[in-house]
Amino acid sequence: MDLAKFESMDPVMLMSIVNTKIRDEFQNLDELVKYYDIDRQKLIDKLASAGFEYLPEAKQFR
Fold first, then answer.
1. 24, 34 in Cβ contact below 8 A?
2. Around Cβ 48, how many Cβ atoms within 10 Å?
3. Using one digit for the tens of pLDDT, what is the confidence trace for 8-36?
4. pTM
5. How would you write 1-61 as a 3-class SS string?
């Protein structure tokens, strides 16, 4: 799944995809956004608009 168009994605699906990718392919959110060359804060804001918060210690959005 290409996250380049994350801004137009459904936030619940986006959260699920991001959490899965962090769990399976990356060590943390910073690695994911660097790999996909996306704005970290925009991703966080998009998911926050749906009530999700990034928890660094858990390495996932909840």
1. no
2. 14
3. 999 999 999 999 999 999 999 999 999 99
4. 0.94
5. CCHHHHHHCCHHHHHHHHHHHHHHCCCCHHHHHHHHCCCHHHHHHHHHCCCCCEECCCCEE
